[in-house]
Write a structure and sequence with these properties.
Number of helices: 8
Order of helices and strands: HHHHHHHH
Oligomer: single chain
Helix content: 55-70%
Structural class: mainly alpha
Strand content: under 5%
Distance between the termini: 15 Å
Shape: globular
Largest sheet: none
Radius of gyration: 16 Å
Amino acid sequence: AMAANFWVSTHCLHWTLKLSPEQVDTAHGKHEGLTAAEVKRLHADLAELIQDVGVDMGLRQLVISTSIVYFKRFFLRHTFGDMNPHLLAAAALYLACKVEEFHVRLTTLVKEVRNVVGKVIAAAAPEAERDALVRRQLTPITNEAVLEAELCLLEALNFDTIVFHPYRP
C-alpha cells in the first residue's frame, strides 16, 4: 500500500534530490581523475549501453528504465573505481528484471552484456589495442560476479527498489 503513494515512498523520502547545478558537478567530480563533464559523458554512454542490451533482449522499457535508475543511484554513492561499470550495468539489469517481474536467465543476460560491451569497445578502441581491451573489460563479467555485484548494488540502494517513473502503470 505504501509503495502506491509516491509521497510516502522510499523513492520520495530517500532519493528525490534537490541539488543545484554546482552540487551536481561536485558529485560528478568525486570520481578520481575525471572531470565532471567526463563523468556525465560516461553516465550517458553507460545508460545507452543498458538501453541497447535491454532492447536486444526484448526487455520492457519499464525494466530498462528501472535498471538505469539503479545504475545512477549506485554512482551517487560510489565512484567508477569502486566497481566495473559494465559489471554493474549487468547487475542493475538483472535486479530490475527481478523487481519488475520480467523473467530472464542470468546466463542469457551475461552473454548479451558481454556481446554489447565487446561491440562498443571494439568500435571505439584503436585497432592495435582492441583485443586486449575487450578481454580486459569482459573478463570480470561472469554469472558469479553479476550476483555479487547485485548484492553490492542492493546495499548501495539501501534495498530501496521501488522506482516511480513514467513507465510504471
